[in-house]
Every structure is written in structure tokens, then in C-alpha cells.
Amino acid sequence: MKIDLSTTIGPNQFSNPLINAAGVWDETALELDELVASTAGGVTTKSATLEPRSGNQRPRYADVALGSINSMGLPNQGLKYYLDYVTTHDASKPIDLSIANPNPMDNLTALQMIQDSSFQGLTELNLSCPNVIGKPQIGYDLAALKQILQQAFKLFTKPLGIKLPPYFDLQQFDAVADILNQFPLTFINTINSVGNGLLVDPASERTLIEPKGGFGGIGGAYVKPVALANVHAFRSRLKPTIKIIGTGGVRNGTDVFELILCGADAVSVGTTLMQAGPQLFTKLQDELIQLMVQKHYPSLATFRNQLKAAH
Ligand code: DHB
Fold it and tell me: What's residue 270's pLDDT?
């Protein structure tokens, strides 16, 4: 059986739905080259600020059996570095340029720089970084969310998506979707890490990471049900022109299948990519293909958003 894994987001055609989650294996040109050379369908760049940043104090990332905690604090090489990379790399697969600025006004400057460049790929405006000391997540402030989108679309005409934090209340899904449907968004990426969790080491009685008293974004298996719920809740509320990149808790091909079943157009992988490295993408694709063959699904479209209720 011939299996077609291709998917599209805006003008970009992906040979398969797998992408690195922003912030994983994507800070330097060397790492980005490894992702471009891997079997990933697309590549995301580390969320860039206008100026380079070294990020928070170490230790700022830790793995445990069920996932990870991080409070990286946006270490990155600055937007110009990533803009240079994406406008000169070999274009063999789509690139998603991620930006995140602790000062919301800087996001508009960043968008203007991208607008004025020759970059033709997707831009992902990250409204959900939980780790900048003293700054809230814009995704949880609905007035600020609406305002930044109004300002962004006044100056930006290229394909734009946003990275959202997880929501936990059905009224929140309604209210956020109402706002998003007012804009010509190309996609949303849901979910970012579950913000401000806490992992502790009972032996040393210490937090696993140092910044912010140990609080950090939780990823990995812990967050998969939240990711499935956010993808599914938004798919049933957003207009069909807004595509969804589903992110959260992918460890195997079945997890990729489940996110697509819940409505994802593409799937990004964070914690497991951090642990396994870019060869992971081949394993995930092999497992997804095997499952699709068993279920007689020749393409992603044949099962996307087809989740049925229990009875
Ligand atoms: C960081 C973490 C995030 O979850 C994010 O969306 C952006 C940046 C960080 O701490 O670097």
C-alpha cells in the first residue's frame, strides 16, 4: 500500500507532518543544518528576540521519565542570525521562523524585519513563552492577544501563525477562537509547554532547575492529553483556513496519529527530540506508516479530524 504523508500549511508543502518544536535542536546553524539534513518534513528555528540572549542560569533543563522541565529564558542568536539562515539555506524543506519577544512592541519590529526580507516561509509568533522572568504569557491575556494580532496584521502580509499556551477551560477555547477567527492567520501551533510546573528531587530536596525558584515549562508524556484536547478544541472552533500544528507529548508514531486524528495538520516534537536527536524523525515516520498500513489509511487526510466519541 502506497502511503502519502504529505501535508500543507499555507503555501508550504511538507513531505511529511513532522517538525522540531521551536527551541529544540535549532539554536545554531549547525543544529539547523542537522534538522534540514534529517527526515523531518519541516524545520523551526529557535524563537528569536531582536538581540541575542544567553538565557537563564543553569541548570535550566531537566529530563525525567515522563517528560521534561525547562526554563531556558530564550537563549538565542538574535533575529538577524536566523533571518540570514533562512534566507540563505538550501530550501529543501519548509522553514518556520519563530520569534518571541519579552517586550510585545519588539514583536512588531521583528515582523517588520521579516516582512522586509526575502523570506517566503512561515513565521511563528510565539505568544506563550513561560520563562522570561517578570513577563506574563500574552496568550493568557486576551486583550493583549487581540491587540498584538491587530497590530501584526497591519504590517505583515506573509503567512503568519502563532504559538499558543495550553488552555484548560472550554470558555477559554471559545473566547480565544473568537479572537483568532477575526484574523487571516495561516496556522496556530498548540500547545507550548504547560507553564510553571515544578519538578523536585526527593533525595536532595532540591528543584531540578535553578531559575524562577524551580518553576518551568513541562513537556513530554505529561502533557499529551492537554495537547490532544487543545488541538481538538481549536479544530472544532477555528475557521478551516487556519491550520493547526499539534505539539505535545509525542514519543512514537501512534502519538503522531492521535494528534492528526484530533485535527492536526502537522506535528512538532520537543522533549523526545531533545532526548533522541534528529534520527528520531525516521523512527516516527516508520511507526506512523506502519499504523496507517494496518488501518488502511493511504493519506493523512483520510483520518485527520475523524475522532469519534466513545459509546
Ligand atoms: C522558551 C520557552 C518556551 O516555552 C518558549 O515558547 C520560548 C522560549 C525559553 O525558555 O527559552
Answer: 98
CB-ligand 1 contact for 131 (6 Å cutoff):
yes
Segment 219-239 mean pLDDT: 99
CA distance 284 to 231: 19
- Number of domains composing the chain: 1
pLDDT surpassing 90 at residue 11: yes
- To the query of whether residue 262 is one of the catalytic residues in this protein, the response is no
In the reported structure, the alpha carbon of residue 138 is separated from the centroid of ligand 1 by a whole-number distance in angstroms of 13
Domain for residue 209, yes or no?
A: no
Q: Which three cell numbers stand for residue 57?
A: 542560569
* The ligand 1 atom nearest the CA atom of 216: 10
Dihedrals phi, psi of 106, to nearest 5 degrees: -65, -25
Atom of ligand 1 nearest to the CA of 132: 10
Three cell numbers at 98? 519563530
| Residue at 204 is within a domain | no
Question: Does 1 map to a domain?
Answer: no
End-to-end CA gap in the chain: 31
Q: Is residue 241 part of a domain?
A: yes
Range of the domain at 26: 7-57+74-195+220-302
The confidence band for 47, taking pLDDT boundaries of 50, 70 and 90, is very high
pLDDT (tens digit per residue) in 258-269: 999 999 999 999
Q: Choose, from 40, 122, 129, 262, the residue flagged as catalytic.
A: 129
- Nearest ligand 1 atom to the CA of 71 is 10
Q: State the distance from the centre of ligand 1 to the C-alpha of 127, rounded, in angstroms.
A: 10
CATH number, domain at 180? 3.20.20.70
Cell of 275: 532526548
